[in-house]
Amino acid sequence: MTSQSLTFRSLVRLLAAVLVLALSASVSATLYKTVGPDGKVTYSDKPPMNVKEAERTERMRDVPPPGDPDAAKKLSEQQADFQKRTIDRQTSEQKAAEAQKERADLLRRCQDARTAIRQYQDTGMTLYRAGEKEGERVAMDMDARLKEVARLEAQMKEAGCE
Questions:
Q1: 104: burial class by Cβ within 10 Å (0-12, 13-18, 19+)?
Q2: Is 36 helix (H, G, I), strand (E, B) or coil?
Q3: 140-159: b or e for each residue (b if 16 or more CB lie within 10 Å)?
């Protein structure tokens, strides 16, 4: 590429930018709002001729031309839809977090049960349970251990431990 083509492109870009700015300035309109003595509101792009008849005239800049008459209704529907989607997303995120917490709790309970089963099955270790009297410890015999293992395995099966 030559320096002339770069200069020509720069010039074209500059002219395009100036043209866009000039068009946007001419598009922005000044709007006049006039409230008559009878309370009637009138909008116009020209200032009122007879100022005595108008109680108040406001000059409003850069007001877009009137658009869709249902725009306010559509906007409120869009906002309501957005709020509903936001609430739905928050609810689903909350449910997912609760499900994840429940899953982690289940995994912890399953691991605790597996650990307890291993302890009950280890015959080299003496295990005690609380006796009928306060502070009394009673050694567990093999039958009591096997009953406890069976109870824990049933709980694990019911809870869905793998």
A1: exposed
A2: coil
A3: eeeeebeebbeebeeebeee
- Which pLDDT does position 2 carry in this prediction? 55
Dihedral of the CA atoms 90, 91, 94, 96 (nearest 10)? -110
Strand partners, 128: 139
The ranges of the chain with pLDDT < 50 are: 53-55
d(CA 153, CA 145): 12
End-to-end CA distance of the chain: 70
Q: What angle do CA 83, 93, 98 make, to 5 degrees?
A: 140
- Residues 140 and 128: beta-carbon distance below 8 Å: yes
Burial of 31 (0-12, 13-18, 19+ CB in 10 A): middle
Q: List the one residue out of 66, 6, 58 whose CA is nearest residue 32.
A: 58
- pTM score of the predicted model: 0.45
Q: Is residue 44 a contact partner of residue 32, using CB atoms and an 8 Å limit?
A: yes
